[in-house]
Design a protein that fits this description.
The chain has two domains: 31 residues, no CATH class; 98 residues, GMP Synthetase, Chain A, domain 3 (2-Layer Sandwich). The longest helix is centred in the middle third of the chain and has 23 residues. A hairpin with a 7-residue loop joins strand 4 and strand 5. It is α+β, with helices and mostly antiparallel strands. Helices cover 31% and strands 36% of the residues. The termini are far apart. It holds the Pfam family OsmC. InterPro entries: KH_dom-like_a/b, OsmC/Ohr_fam, OsmC/Ohrsf. It comes from Massilia arenae.
């Protein structure tokens, strides 16, 4: 896996990233740090990737368990250290899983397996952050 991150130039703190799969992502800093607030911050991108990794796992595990899953949203709320390096110290994942006759035990199992075994990103972040998770099921 490879990505290339390039600074967009001296007029700010904007960066562009190209992924090994050929996708482009723009990141920017806060105005008080020289950025223009035109794109997500790099640490927000870390949360985005982690949420995507975990949601992917949850959906895949539920599908493989033959659950009738129709949707999955995850909201991550994170806290960071006050001093450098400002690592994440707490992250809560709240899943809203939509489907028909979903078993709460199956959803809880999928979330647990993602966080304990499959989601490399959340397992890596757990080295510095207290990771918690919760879920709700919406019947359709």
């Amino acid at each position: 896996m490879e990505v290339k991150v390039s600074w967009n130039g001296p007029s700010g703190m904007s960066f562009r990233a190209e992924t090994g799969s050929g996708h482009m992502v723009t990141m920017d800093g806060a105005p008080d740090g020289g950025g223009h607030n035109l794109a997500p911050r790099p640490m927000e991108m870390v949360l985005v990737g982690t949420g995507g990794c975990s949601a992917y796992d949850v959906v895949l595990i539920l599908k493989r368990s033959r659950e009738d899953v129709r949707g999955c949203d995850v909201t991550l709320q994170a806290e960071r250290a006050d001093t450098d390096p400002k690592v994440f110290t707490r992250i809560n994942f709240h899943f809203t899983v939509t489907g028909h006759a979903l078993k709460p035990t199956a959803v809880e199992r999928a979330v647990r397996l993602s966080h304990e075994k499959y989601c490399s990103a959340s397992i890596m972040l757990a080295k510095t952050a207290e990771i918690t998770h919760s879920f709700e099921i919406v019947e359709v």
